[in-house]
Amino acid sequence: MVAVNGIQLFTRVMGEGPTTVVLHGGPGAHHDYLLPQYDALAKGRTLRYFDQRGGGRSPVSRDVPVGWRHHVADLDALRATWGLERLTLLGYSWGALLALLYATRHPTRVERLALVSPAATSLAGRATFEARFAERMRAPDVVAARRAVQASNLRVRDPEAYRKQTFELAVAGYFRDFTMARNLTPFRITARTQNEVWESLDGFDLREQLRALTVPALVVHGAHDPVPLATARETADLLGARFESFDQSGHVPHVEEFEHFRAVLDEFLPASA
Predict the structure, then answer these.
(1) What is the mean pLDDT of each run of 10 residues along the chain (273 residues)?
(2) d(CA 65, CA 171)
(3) Domains assigned to the chain
(4) Which helix (H) or strand (E) holds 19?
(5) What distance separates the 2 farthest-apart alpha carbons in the chain?
């Protein structure tokens, strides 16, 4: 546990070598659901994970604010605590947006940006994602699978298996093939944190601010992601970033195309020889 800004954040370190700070998605989730796949990137580098305020093992009381500015401030406080002058950031989903929010506020403190399945950088883009995700969740095969689980006696016969299948169906819309959700480590979202972050971003649009950034960047995105490929490509273009499309992935390339994911990130992130 690390004390920053009057709260306690759970942190985890893997590997040795140049440091990459990993930012999980959500908001309001925790770093565990990136595992074990992200740990494969620890060869030749140090990965620093943390559970963001208001999620996972970094809970806060209800009177503690959890808006986006507080997440940016926590990240900068961790940077100082860890003795890092500049950060290499590996952000997934909301974590990629957090990396961009940090970079637009502290551009001289960012060494490199790796953005995996980045959340949209504008309110309009987020609305498109939400509509596409809802449509995916109404797909006939997903609906049929959900009804089959509900109609079974699995909840009584094997509660753990029931919880696992219920989770997998709850995230089905993120995957190209929703049965791949069985390989995603289950996670939970703290609703208060998620809601407060998006409320604090009301009306946001970072696109013009991204043009001003001059940091090496990589954008990785699945061709079947409910966040449209064009949205991620626009982010890459604004940053002047390398863009990698994963043709067999939805929103979770570290599960759906693990070997490709590892190869692309290994090539981009700093590492010792």
Answers:
(1) 97 97 97 98 97 97 97 98 97 98 97 98 93 96 94 89 94 96 96 96 93 97 96 96 97 98 98 90
(2) 27
(3) 2-128+188-268 (3.40.50.1820)
(4) strand 19-23
(5) 57
